[in-house]
Structures are given as structure tokens and as C-alpha cells.
Amino acid sequence: MPLTIAPAMHHHESASPISGEVRPLAVRYRQVTDLAEIPDTVALEPDEAFVVGTFELAEALIARGIDSNQIAVSGLPPSDSTYPGYVRTALSVNLTPLVPFRFDRSTLVILPTYNERQNLPSMIDAIRTYITTDILVVDDNSPDGTGQLADELSRQHTSVHVLHRTEKQGLGPAYIAGFQWALNRHYQSIIEMDCDFSHAPWDLPRMVHRSATADLVIGSRYIPGGGTKNWDRRRRLVSRLGNAYVTLFLGSTIHDWTGGFRCFRRELLAEMNLDRVKAKGYVFQVEMAWRAFQAGAVITELPIRFRDRIHGHSKLGWPTIFEAIKDVPRMYWRTSAYR
Questions:
Q1: pLDDT per residue over 51-99, tens digit each?
Q2: What are phi and psi of 271, to 5 degrees?
Q3: Distance CA 119, CA 133 (A)
Q4: What is the average pLDDT across 278-305?
Q5: What pLDDT, on the 0 to 100 scale, is given for residue 84?
Q6: Helix 283-294 vs helix 171-184: angle between axes, to the nearest 10 degrees?
Q7: Inter-CA distances, 298 with 31, 211, 255, 291, Å
Q8: SS3 per-residue string spanning the chain
Q9: Cα angle at 182 between 177 and 188, to 5 degrees?
Q10: Phi–psi pair at 303, nearest 5 degrees
Q11: In terms of Cα–Cα distance, which of 324, 330, 54 is closest to 205?
Q12: Fewest Cβ atoms closer than 10 Å to its Cβ: which of 10, 22, 171, 195?
């Protein structure tokens, strides 16, 4: 069955969300208006992009294989957010809203950093392009000066805040410190996100929108519409085996236990005893999801495409893998402690 689409819309000029460079458009916009008429498989030409009126239509397209950076959400009801109109884009440049999405719930994006000086300015610019939010940089005394750069960016942007830690203690303690900072300041939606562009900033509005009906939103690589890009075979195997190992002990309720792109509602984090979270490495994500599940939270997964980092090196190593092998069985036996 064919898509219900409007004729190709006029081209405009557009600025890149990071560089500000103006480029001529070479994109034909295709507007989807009827969810029932979206086929099981959808294909776009290289010079096309979809425009939809709601996030629900966008999610239907994404579940059928369209990358989220090829879909613009242009007409949300006032009850969902205040977004005045359309989008602009350029070929090979991600779709960019005319103004950032703004939601009713106060939002904080937490960026844990260790030697992310090359990525941090571009990431903050990109986040601010797609969504109106505060940003907390949690720096573990990076030797490359990331913390000092974060302070400079904080002076430039009132929405950027910095939490300095004296030493590198792992991903878990960094996020716990960020969560506690957020709870003390009464943010309502609290997002975990890598600083290396592995998690797409243009997916932030999708995540916050979904959090209106869920206590925990997990950006998932392993549901329809999700996936990974630029990974070698070894990394794909390690990730798949890791999730299979967790599922063996904790069940298949969650498809992507180890994913680190998440949105927590304040109410859920406030109920959790964060001081008792033990995991330090990437298995921290497993423990937080398991605690949320044990607490009876409403958990939903949102398909994302995880991209390999632009600069720097992955911090996933053998100590993290060994930690997961050891700690996941312990989580299962400590179930009663989470209630």
C-alpha cells in the first residue's frame, strides 16, 4: 500500500547544527499523514526526507528501517510541546529543527567525560540545537583538560553546568553523582548520554517525548529499527554475547540491557536507593535497569542506531567484561535488596 505523502516541498538553505555553515538544499520532503498506510518496508532516495506530524508517526517509520535523522517532526499538538513549525536540512547533513524542541518537563542531559576535549564543544552545540535542556558535564579530572574546557563552555551558556570529580572512578559513580545533582535540583526528566556522538543528539526529542508515558526509556539497538553502525565483527559479537549473558540470568523483558542512552523520570530515581548501586563500569547500566524492573517501573525501549565514536578511543576493556561476568549473577541473587 503506498504512503500518503504530499508533493515534494520547496528547497531552502540550511545551516549545519554544529558548524553553522550554510549549504544549499538538495532534499525532497515527503510528508506522511496516515499511520495506517505506512508499508512494512519503506525506502528513501538519497535526496529525500520524511516529514511527519507526530512522534508516533516517526516511530512507525523508524521501526520499519528509516534512520531517525531522515525524519522531521513538524506539527505536534500543544499538549505535547511547543514547536512552531518546520525543519530545514541539507544533503548529508542531519535534519535540523528551526528551533529546539521544548517540553513541559524540565530536562537534564548528563554527559560523563574523561578525555573528551575533542567532542565536548560539538556535542553541547548539537544538544542545544535539538532540544531545550540543561546539560551537566561530569568530569573525572581528565588529563586532557576536558574539565577546564567544560568550565569555559559553562560560562558561555547558562544551561551548561559542570561537576568536577577528583579522579577516574568509573562510569557508575560518575552517573550516580550526576543523578544526585539532578535530584537535588528537581529536574523531572534525566538523561544519560555518551559524549562521543555514539548516541545521536537528534534522538533526544524522541526520548523525552516517550518519557511522558514511561518511567525509564532505554535507547535500544536490539529491537526493530535499532542497530549499530561502523562496528567491526568483534565488537558486535561482544555486545550480543553480553546481552545474551545478562538475559540468561535476568530475563528477556529488556532487549538491550547494556545500552547507555536512557531517560529516567525523576520519580523513579528518587525511589531508588542510589547509594547502594555497586557497579562501576558498563555493567552499571544493567544494574540500573534491573533495579528499575524490580521496582515495578514502566520501562520502554526506543530504537536507536548506535554509531562508533568520532574522536578518541572506546573505554570498554577487559576489566569491564570481567565485572559483568561476576556481577550479573549477584544481581539475580540480590533481587530482594532492590525492593
A1: 888 899 999 999 999 999 989 888 654 444 455 556 766 666 778 888 8
A2: -80, -25
A3: 19
A4: 93
A5: 53
A6: 50
A7: 32, 10, 15, 12
A8: CCCCCCCCCCCCEEECCCCCCEEECCCEEEEECCHHHCCCCCCCCCCEEEEECCHHHHHHHHHCCCCHHHEEECCCCCCCECCCCCEEEECCEEEEECCCECECCCEEEEEEECCCCCCHHHHHHHHHHHECCEEEEEECCCCCCHHHHHHHHHHHCCCEEEEECCCCCCHHHHHHHHHHHHHHCCCCEEEECCCCCCCCHHHHHHHHHHHHHCCEEEEECCCCCCEEECCCHHHHHHHHHHHHHHHHHHCCCCCCCCCCCEEEEHHHHHHCCHHHCCCCCCHHHHHHHHHHHHCCCCEEEEECEEECCCCCCCCCCHHHHHHHHHHHHHHHHCHHHHC
A9: 145
A10: -65, 130
A11: 54
A12: 10
Residue 185 CB neighbours (<10 A) = 12
| pLDDT at position 29 | 81
Sign for the CA dihedral angle at 317, 290, 301, 195 comes to: negative
Q: Is the pLDDT of residue 281 over 60?
A: yes
Single pTM value for the model: 0.86
CATH 3.90.550.10 fits 107-338, yes or no: yes
Q: Write the CB contacts of 20 (distance below 8 Å, at least 6 apart in sequence).
A: none
Mean pLDDT of 298-302: 98
Query: Residue 142 and residue 165: Cα distance in Å, rounded?
Result: 9
At position 329, the amino acid (one-letter code) is P
**Mean pLDDT over the full length of the chain:** 84
Whether 24 shows a pLDDT value over 70: the answer reads no
Q: CB-based burial of residue 321 (10 Å sphere; 0-12 exposed, 13-18 middle, 19+ buried)? A: middle
**Grid cell for residue 185:** 535540583
Pairing of strands 216-220, 227-229: unpaired
314 pLDDT more than 60: no
What is the share, in percent, of the chain residues with pLDDT greater than 90? Answer: 56
